[in-house]
Amino acid sequence: MVLRDEMGRNISYDHSNEKNYKRVKPGSFVIHLRSFQGGFAHSPIEGIVSPAYTVFEAIDETNQCDRFWKHLFMSKRFVQALTIVTYGIRDGRSINVDEFLEMPLSYPAYPEQVDIGQTIDRLDNLITLHQRKPRCV
After folding, report:
1. What is the number of alpha carbons within 13 Å of residue 30 lying toward its C-beta?
2. What is the pTM of this model?
């Protein structure tokens, strides 16, 4: 999830429809039309999204680490598992949210979620730094 101004392209919309948009809070997840390809979007920021999307968050945020779930919801294994709750033949398929909510998910206790989320974040940052580093020939 990024701010509209940071997307690098002009996306026009009808401002009068904003009242119908859904609020996204930091730590929320968004099921969008490409979720069947890349998982659910995690939002580090507050904003709004189209009413066509589904927004959800942990019921008890004190026992669930959104950083852990961010990485799980974008993992190749999770995205492959979404095929059982995905329907439609068009390019942007839909996720059956009720069926998704019934999917069995195994997860560790909260302290381990925090450790896993932080570890993957550090690895992602390290990979990004190495990708930016100029290579000598």
Report:
1. 24
2. 0.81
Could you give phi then psi for residue 54, rounded to 5 degrees? -105, 130
Under 8 Å between Cβ of 79 and 37: yes
CATH number of 4-130: 3.90.220
As a whole number, mean pLDDT of residues 5-27 equals 79
Cβ partners under 8 Å of residue 64, min gap 6:
58, 110, 113
- What whole-number distance in Å separates Cα of residue 117 and Cα of residue 120? 5
pLDDT digits (tens, 9 = 90+) for 66-120: 999 999 999 999 999 998 888 876 666 788 899 998 999 899 999 999 999 999 9
Query: Comparing C-alpha atoms, which of 71, 57, 65, 46 is closest to residue 122?
Result: 71
11 or 113, which is more confident: 113
Domain boundaries of the chain, sorted by first residue: 4-130
d(CA 30, CA 73): 10
How many Cα atoms occupy the beta-carbon half-sphere of 73 within 13 Å?
Answer: 24
Size (the chain), residues: 137
